[in-house]
Each structure stands twice: as C-alpha cells, then as structure tokens.
DNA sequence: GACGAATGGATAGCGGTACTCTCCGCTATC
DNA sequence: GATAGCGGAGAGTACCGCTATCCATTCGTC
C-alpha cells in the first residue's frame, strides 16, 4: 500500500506519517520508483504502536524512538532487552529529590529484600523517589507507609501481567507485549483505581439521603 | 512574607509565582500598600500543592485551576466535592473509541455490579475505554481479561488509600488528601509496578548465568 | 531622607514539542 | 493527457509553560 492507504487504515493524517518517517519512528517504505514507495502490514502495525505509545503512554517522540530502537535490538538477551525497554518507557521526572524520600525508598528496598545494587540508579527508582519527595513537600510524609500495601496489590497485578505476556510466542512478541502491557496497563490501572475510589466513597459516605 | 521569601521557601522562581497569580492558581496576597502584598503559610502550602500537581500529577495549568476550584467549593456535600475533584484530576485522553472496547468496559461494569448510570459518561470511564481501544488497535484484544485481576489488586490499594485518607481531620483535608493521594499514588504505583515486573523478570528468566 | 534593591502589576517574548503546510518534480490511473 | 496522489525536504504554526522587560512605588538601611 502507499501512504494514503496507510493513513486511511490507521487514522493518522498523511503529513503526520511523513513526519514520523522523517523522525525515524517508521522505517521507510520500499521504493518502487524514485517517488513511489510501498508499505506493508508491518508498517501499519508499527504506526499503530507509535500512536498507542504517544496517545495512551504519553511518551514523547524522542522516547518513542528510544523504545522502538530497544525493540529492534537484535543481539541481546531477553532480559537485557526488557531492561532497556523498561528504562525507555520510564521517564524519570524533574523535581528535586528530598534526601528523606530517597531514604524512604532505600528502606523500602531493604524491607523487600531487593538487591539494590542494580536498581538504585535506574529511572524507576528515580520515579519513586520523585513521587515521595512531592508527597513530603505537600506535608504527606506518611505517604511512604502506603508502599507496602501498594506492593501487595501490585504483586497480584504484576502476576497477571506476567501470565498475560507468557501467552505470547516469540521473544519479540514478549518485549512488545511488555511495552504495550506496561503503558496501557498504567492507563487502565489509573482508571480502575479511580473507579474503586468512587465505589468506596459511595459506600462509606452515606452523608445526607438526597438533595 | 513577600514574594521573594515565598519563592525562597518553595523553590519556585518569582516570575513563575507571578504567572500563577495571574492564572488564578494562587490567591492574591493581602495588599498593605499599592505595591506591597503579604503572603502567608496558606499561600506557601497552595504553591507547593500546585507544583506537586504540575510536576508529579502532570496536570496542565488549566486542570490545576479546575482542581483548585473544586477544592475551594464551599457549599457541597463531601461526596459531590470528591466527585468534582475526581473529574478534574482525570483527563479523558484523545484517541478514537473502538465500540468493542466500550462494550468491554460495560461488560466489566456489569460483571462488577456497578450501577452504570452515573458513571458511564464520566472522564474515568472514558479513560478506561480509551486505553482498551488502544490495546485493541495494537492487536491486544485480550487485554480486557486483565481488568478483573487488576481490580482485585486495586481493591487492596484502594483500601489502603481510604485508610490513609481516613486519618485526616477536616473534610478539606480529606478532599486535598484525595487529590494528592490519587495523583502521587498514580506515580508511585507506576514505579512500584515496574519494580515488581523487573523482580519477576529476574526470577523467571534465568537465561544464561552471567555475561 | 537618600538610594539601591525589591515589589506589584502588566505586556511581550521565548523555547520546546508535535505536528502541519507548502512546494517541487515525478508517477500511477483513468 | 489530465488529474490526483506521491516522496522528500524545509519552513511555518499552535499551544503551553514559563521568562524577560518595563514601570512607578516602596522597603530596608545607612
């Protein structure tokens, strides 16, 4: 297919597709003439992935490029590849780090028996410390006490994630599934947590019959 | 205190504070002269809240304004106020809605015995449908099967959230705690989920001893 | 009470991001 | 052979969150 049909099938405007091509988010099509190129289903698939990362995953174009580069890495173990990808989909955040919050994180790791060595300087750790710093800055220094119950709930969720991913065939599918599952999972979790809050709020607060 | 000290204590540059004042994110200080205003701890607290919402909660300035407006509402039941605030901190997202994904959401509600009536057109429902649409568009139409295990894990988390909030005194503290807890909780959950993934990935994939 | 720094207030400008537009010569299709 | 679409490249746009500049006034302190 040519770019017009790629656009129609994906819902992405042609100029945007051209932009993604320029930015290296989509591989160039196969040239059949100096100004005719052919795109296949793989391009369509990749394009939809890019949109999902941008729209739902809220990744910047640069971050998407990193993710795709990690996905396309050929010569690494699965574990390394997963690590690469995870770094790429975990934006660190910009705020100041309160040393007390960093200590909270380390204490949490110790409590959970994490080998901290290879984790403490990752984006994920930074994310966590940033969030706890923000909590402290607005006077919620007891927020850290939620880490353990959160982990308890997230173990269930992570297990479901792993089971879901395990149904996939090739290692490429696994890595891509991890990207999609992590980012779309984030969005789903955000929404469902809010639903759970609303449900509880409705149950707990029977304040005033009606108005 | 005056603006300079407010800046020093919060770490926010003076021009930014002025900007927030203009945008209505901070109430004006009490004027003691035509060009001197006095700010108190309440301003400082509000400023830090704004920064947390912007930095960690990733809210736009407009969304922050909505949240603050909801927080400052005086004449509503707690339940209504919580609902208002929840809408304000739940950005809908922009993608197309796949009708099949919408059906997935409704089926989920039915399964969970939600009274859908007052929920189906909320931002949160839209968030969920957007995420599931994205999943479908990249070929993960079985992603919806994760909804139930996610809810199971999130019930634990939501319970912890409620317990945490319940320690607070005034209803104002409750509502503010809900904002902070929801947004910072989102960030924390994101991070901890990734840690859980990494942990599981390390456990499951003992592929190759070392390199 | 003089003087430099800081203040409140208003308007304009800046830097980054994600597109979007325009133009070109060429090509598929009718 | 007309017309629509194409690949490619550079410039332009819209929005967002600040940041810079200016002004008259006032604070701090000497």
Automatic annotation (TrEMBL), chains A, B:
PROSITE patterns from the UniProt entry: HTH_MERR_2
Short name of any one Pfam family annotated for the protein: MerR_1
Domain HTH merR-type: 1-70
Keyword RNA-binding tagged: no
Keywords: DNA-binding
Presence of the UniProt keyword DNA-binding in the record: yes
Gene3D superfamilies with a match to the protein in the record: 1.10.1660.10
Top-level taxon of the source organism: Bacteria
Identification of the protein by name: MerR family transcriptional regulator
